[in-house]
Design goal:
Order of helices and strands: EEHHEEEHEH
Distance between the termini: 39 Å
Number of domains: 1
Shape: globular
Strand content: 15-25%
Number of helices: 4
CATH class: Alpha Beta
Strand order of the largest sheet: 1-2-3-4-5-6
Structural class: alpha+beta
Number of strands: 6
CATH topology: Aminopeptidase
Largest sheet: 6 strands, mixed
CATH superfamily: Gcn5-related N-acetyltransferase (GNAT)
Length: 149
């Protein structure tokens, strides 16, 4: 059963996969984000299907924002693809999405919750996020050209 939060002004955040507009979200992420420019639709759709993916919906029902959490729903989560459509910025949807994720029943009791941001540190700090600890222990395989092949 989907988990949903409704704000007094009519905005709704929901994890209902049937309601989530993958094509609209893909347009935002591939065309307007700095972190996933050019990601193919099929790969983005697969990422959404394998994650806890939520949409923020305007009072008219149109999807106005999104967030995704890569998680095992038991110990760890990585919040990513937080995005608010330009027409809805300034309405507090970033805060609404983060409050929804902070309270989501599938995201409780984790040892770690991560995210990365270039420019929204102030938003995420309001929800308890701080600098990465133990960064010297983290490693990665990075392939920035994976979608260009």
């Amino acid at each position: 059963m989907p988990h949903e939060t409704r704000r007094e002004d009519g905005y709704v955040v929901s994890d209902d996969v049937a309601r989530f507009d993958v094509a609209r979200a893909h347009q935002w992420i591939t065309g307007e984000s700095y972190w996933a420019e050019g990601i193919p639709l099929a790969i983005f759709a697969k990422a959404c299907a394998g994650s806890l993916t939520v949409g923020a919906y305007a009072p008219d029902g149109q999807m106005a924002g999104m967030a995704r959490v890569v998680t095992d729903r038991a110990t760890f989560g990585w919040i990513c693809d937080v995005f608010v459509d330009e027409a809805h910025r300034g309405a507090g949807l970033g805060k609404l999405l983060m409050a929804y994720l902070k309270g989501h029943p599938d995201l409780q009791g984790f040892r770690r919750m991560h995210l990365a941001t270039r420019d929204a540190h102030g938003l995420y700090a309001q929800f308890g996020f701080g600098p990465l600890t133990g960064a010297d222990r983290w490693m990665e395989i990075r392939d920035p050209d994976v979608y260009r092949r």
